[in-house]
Specification:
Elements lengths: L4 E6 L7 H16 L4 E6 L7 H9 L5 E5 H4 L18 H7 L3 H8 L6 E8 L3 E5 L14 E4 L3 H9 L3 E4 L5 H7 L4 E5 H6 L8 E4 L6 E7 H5 L3 H33 L4 E4 L3 H4 L1 H11 L3 H9 L3
Parallel strand pairs: 1-2, 1-3, 6-7, 6-8, 9-11
Antiparallel strand pairs: 3-10, 4-10, 5-8, 5-9
Helix pairs in contact: 1-10, 5-13, 6-12
Length: 303
């Protein structure tokens, strides 16, 4: 009889976020598929550290599983910056389809030499801009504004070129940072915005759809290698079903989150965002445009 074991699955998102719901769904599926041999315990909201800390723990085999932003993963495998290609996808559904490409799988495969197994992609919503006290209709409105970002290279490049001051702040601290004036705005998906009630600390939501925002589900090699072949097969099957379930949930959540915000905050639909951010897009292209898997992802998605 296989020995029972616990696997810890960590992420920075709040309990209501699709990434956390995905993790809970996965945990339930694993328990059922393995007859209780494997228990997956979910730790949301950064309970086990920030993304950089969790990623280090996974690579070292101290933490079994996590969901990391593609931007954070680009610090380990640069081609993950392909997911920060600005205005590459019109909506979450297009981005989800791109995750099935060979290029997207090759990004996951690049983690193998680093003690990690890339299991797949679970998407948050498209990214928008939340501002404490001003609307944004041009780059002049962002000049010298402190915008919360995750501190990965593509985001730093894009926001600096837009004239803003990219400011790293832990996700759980954003509400207070907006309230206190430490931040002027946030680069954010609607799931995280609603999950942390950020609309209560800001006056304007600017819908830009400037990037897709996949989470990369990773497992430590030591955790994977400690499983029996039957357990590995069960986890693979459950993960495939969970990715399909979670990404379908995200498509629904986009509309539901926006509807929930309609009467809580002023919303601007920036239909010409690609043109407004042209100089930022050019800066991204100059620095990352030659990435092999960015070029492959574009070709494989017809761009």
């Amino acid at each position: 009889m296989a020995q029972s074991q616990e696997m810890r699955f960590a992420m920075v998102t709040p309990p209501s976020h699709v990434w956390t719901q995905f993790a809970n769904h996965f945990a339930e599926g694993v328990a059922e598929a393995t007859g209780g041999e494997i228990t997956v315990s979910v730790f949301p909201a950064g309970q086990l550290g920030n993304e950089a800390e969790m990623l280090q723990q996974i690579a070292a085999g101290v933490l079994e599983m996590g969901i990391m932003t593609a931007g954070t993963m680009s610090l380990r495998a640069p081609d993950f910056a392909a997911w920060q290609d600005p205005f590459a996808f019109a909506d979450v559904s297009e981005a989800i389809a791109a995750a099935d490409t060979e290029a997207a799988q090759q990004m996951l495969d690049a983690l193998a030499p680093q003690g990690m197994r890339g299991m797949g992609y679970i998407f948050a919503g498209m990214r928008h801009i939340l501002m404490a006290d001003r609307d944004v209709t041009s780059l002049e409105d962002l000049a010298s504004q402190k915008i919360r970002i995750l501190p990965f290279p593509a985001a730093l490049t894009w926001w600096r070129a837009a004239g803003a001051v990219p400011t790293p702040v832990a996700l759980g601290d954003v509400y207070q940072a907006l309230s206190s004036g430490l931040l002027d705005g946030v680069d954010i998906d609607l799931d995280a915005l609603v999950g942390f009630s950020m609309q209560q600390a800001a006056e304007h939501l600017i819908l830009t759809n400037h990037i897709a925002f996949p989470g990369v589900v990773v497992m430590s090699d030591s955790a994977w290698n400690g499983l029996t072949p039957e357990q590995q097969e069960a986890i693979t099957s459950v993960s495939e079903e969970s990715f399909e379930w979670g990404n379908a949930l995200q498509v629904e959540a986009e509309a539901a989150n926006l509807a929930a915000l309609e009467d809580q905050i002023a919303i601007t639909r920036l239909d010409n965002a690609r043109e407004i951010f042209a100089q930022a897009n050019e800066a991204y292209e100059a620095e990352f445009g030659e990435l092999p898997l960015l070029q492959a992802l574009r070709a494989q998605t017809g761009r």
